[in-house]
Amino acid sequence: MVLKIQNVSKNFGGINALKDVTFSINEGEIYGLIGPNGAGKTTMFNLITNIFEPTSGEIIFNGENITALKSYKITEKGICRTYQNIRLFPQMSALKNVMVGGHCRSNAGVFSSVFRTKSQRKEEQELTKKAEELLELVGLLEFKDTFAENLAYGQQRRLEIARALASNPSLLLLDEPAAGMNEKETDSLYDLIKMVQSMGITVLIIEHDMPLVMKLCDRITVLNFGEKLAEGTPEEIQSNEAVIEAYLGKEEEEEIA
Amino acid sequence: MLADIINPYFLQILSFILINILLAISVYVPLSSGQLSLGSAGFMGVGAYTSALLTIHFDIPLIIGILAGACVAGILGIIVGIPSLRLSGVYLAIATLGLGEVIRVIFVNWESLTKGSIGLTGIPQMGREILNFAKGFGFDPAMIGLKSNQFVYLVIVLILLLLVIATIWFVVRQQNSRVGRSLSSIQMDEKAAESMGINITYYKVLSFTQGAFLAGLAGALFAHVMGYISPSDFSYHRAVEILIFTVFGGSEVILGAVFGATFLTLVPEVLRFISDYRYIIYGIVLIILMAVRPQGIFDIHLLNRLKGLKRSKGGVR
Amino acid sequence: MLLEQLVNGITLGSIYAIVALGFTLVFGVLGIINMAHGEIFMVGAFVGVMTTSVLGWPLWLAFIASIVVTGILGYLLERITLRPLRGKKGVSHLAPLISTIGVSILLENLSHHIFGAGNQPFRSSFAEISIEIGSITIYLVQIVIFAISILLMIGLTIWLSKTKAGKALRATAENLETASILGVDTKKIITLTVIIASAMGGIAGILVGMAFNSVSPQMGLSMGLKGLAIIILGGMGNVKGAMAGGLILGLSETFLVAFGDSGYRDAIAFIMIIFILLLRPQGIFGSKIAEGR
């Protein structure tokens, strides 16, 4: 078991964003987290990476309680994420963005950086090489010197994945990676995530694109109003009465609105 | 022959420019991780008074006094930095502004040590000390065709130039490394930087402390170039002036700080009549810059274009 | 003696509170620290000097003149230095801070050139009138200052809680986007806020002139820093905190001067800034965490 979410709740000023949610992810899985808007999916990511601490409950990663660990320490442990609203470093080249991702897997300090010691030069070379490989993996090698802000939307999403991969995660958190992508881009995203899985990385993904989720995920948890509604394989989820109702109910509301 | 070219007045302006470049860099470094420090004048004062008092009262060598000044300012930077870096940019700016004023008020009121608002005089002058030292070895400026005061100012300029080059070299190398990438990622998006595994507190304290150290160094040098200092040399206006050097020249690239300090020190010297209206012009410049070009004169795009220009010229040749 | 100092402290404190209210209003609505507020206050004080001493106007007219001039300055500040930066992509959150620093040194040095660096005397017709109660002396000026301050604070509180514009201002301070969705003309509200804040600074300027009988171009800087100290003490954007913080600073300064070392009087505010920011960044009365702004 890679990640275990144990009775996690999060309360924001009296409102329960998450209520007593429990699920666990096995090694090598692609695990989906779905649910209507405001169901608490991104909040779950923020709790796992400790942007907030949960009100109650525990988060166990590889057998270790990481609930109160600082964000950057959690990344060191091997969890890295992308953001729903893309948070790249805009005025930095694509290559450098990915190299920043490799920060916690390198250790040059001020002294060795300024005097360019042998080990520092070697480390920089390795970082650059690895960043280029990752850019190639996501198909952006030709844009390595382009500022992140000048990349197209779909490219930015893929760059964010490459940046996260540079931290050598054993668990990758993807927050709506297909948002705003067209069909072709979504297809190549599917291939990319499968490739990531084949590299031995476990994936936890939030996504609204249902066909993609059903095709991609091994197992899925459905959240609704902060509570776990259902858990199971894509087939089980698709035939689950409560899930269908939650989604259909939502769609009706949207039509009225 | 050399003696005709070397004009002490020009050399003195040059030494002010060099000190101001150090000061501008002391603001630039923390800014490169997104932190605005308005306390640079305070740190400068700490460096100046520390070194001046040590050398006046304990007769220690200048180089140790200057280093001590820079280190005390740096340590003060750490002490203030660690707790206030939990705060976001605007709060840090105010905390450092408050610190600068507290330091100045202490200089004014601790009369038994600092001589109050009159300030310290008789601070060993760097150039003269070196001249005396050299004379001990039987050296005379006339041997290279210089008058004593020409030699004094020339030595000062050379030492400052060396220090400025070393500082720029340090900052540039640091920037093009893992440390520099971390600093600029924090500047661009602090939360994203942290989730990439960067210990943002460490890097923020690091760059803030480097800024304080540099300001302290510049202050100590200032004391030993001028020979006298007073609290008004380190007032809020000085802090704003230093900020303008960096913001005007370009706060995203180190060339901006260098250019800003050079240009804004030279203009009032060359155009004397402007000198009186300097702060009025500074005010207008800040307002216009923020509205039109908040990144300052030089930015990465402009630098790239200049580089491109050079390359294409090379191609023709 | 003690009672007299208490009166002095409250007089000073109520002026500080008005200066701080101007800071807090702008911060509450815009999230910006207006570094030029102290200098707008100083201009208000000079308008008072010019109208009463040079033109010989009555005091009430001087107040109106000061409110008009600082109000216009507030409008210009918003139009020229703040609005162009708002909502522009890639503008650092430090830009408005730097821009208002620009305004502050511009105003300070302009007054320096116009009025000279020295102190200008401020004569009000009743400066020497005082009342003796038992052993203590209270000057009429102090009562006037206190009354005006209290009226202003009560007026502002009522305006914020009862009137439509005041409610719109509070909604805008709460959340700019939501307020604009709810149909609040946020542009108008922001302009109004900066004008009101500046006019309050102008009033405080005259009050200080009356209290200390002198004004100078440098007074804006120290008052600005004190105003900052107060809103940090009282919590950024907190109206009641600004009032309480003003009184605390006024009293502690007066008592330090009376019973301690007057040289460090100005340092109280700055030391306060540093300690509060380090120990309790949200301020004594603030509940919102300072981080994230």
UniProtKB/TrEMBL annotation, chain A:
Domain of life of the organism encoding this protein: Bacteria
GO biological process, one term: D-alanine transmembrane transport
Keyword check for Transport: yes
CC per GO annotation: plasma membrane
Gene3D superfamilies the UniProt entry points to: P-loop containing nucleotide triphosphate hydrolases
UniProt KW ATP-binding keyword: yes
Molecular functions (GO terms): ATP binding; ATP hydrolysis activity; L-isoleucine transmembrane transporter activity; L-phenylalanine transmembrane transporter activity; L-valine transmembrane transporter activity
Swiss-Prot/TrEMBL keywords: ATP-binding, Nucleotide-binding, Transport
A Pfam family that the UniProt record links to this protein: ABC_tran
Ranges where the ABC transporter domain occurs: 3-250
Name of the protein: ABC transporter ATP-binding protein
Automatic annotation (TrEMBL), chain B:
A Pfam family it matches: BPD_transp_2
Topology of this chain in the membrane: Multi-pass membrane protein
GO-annotated molecular function: branched-chain amino acid transmembrane transporter activity
Protein name stated in the entry: Branched-chain amino acid ABC transporter permease
CDD domains named among the record's database cross-references: TM_PBP1_LivM_like
Residue intervals passing through the bilayer: 6-29, 36-56, 62-82, 89-107, 151-172, 205-230, 242-267, 279-298
Compartments it resides in: Cell membrane
Organism: Lysinibacillus telephonicus
Record's GO cellular component terms: plasma membrane
Assigned keywords, A-Z: Cell membrane, Membrane, Transmembrane, Transmembrane helix
Database matches in InterPro entries: ABC_transp_permease, LivM-like
From TrEMBL, chain C:
GO terms classed as biological process: D-alanine transmembrane transport; L-alanine transport; L-isoleucine import across plasma membrane
Keyword Membrane found: yes
GO molecular function annotation: L-isoleucine transmembrane transporter activity; L-leucine transmembrane transporter activity; L-phenylalanine transmembrane transporter activity; L-valine transmembrane transporter activity
Membrane topology: Multi-pass membrane protein
Keywords: Amino-acid transport, Cell inner membrane, Cell membrane, Membrane, Transmembrane, Transmembrane helix, Transport
UniProt keyword Transcription, yes or no: no
Annotated localization: Cell membrane
Domain of life, per lineage: Bacteria
GO terms for cellular component: plasma membrane
Stored InterPro entries: ABC_transp_permease (IPR001851), BCAA_transport_permease (IPR052157)
Transmembrane region(s): 12-33, 63-82, 94-116, 136-160, 189-212, 267-285
Family: Belongs to the binding-protein-dependent transport system permease family. LivHM subfamily.
Name assigned to this protein: Branched-chain amino acid ABC transporter permease
The species this protein was found in: Lysinibacillus telephonicus
The organism's taxonomic lineage, starting at the top: Bacteria, Bacillati, Bacillota, Bacilli, Bacillales
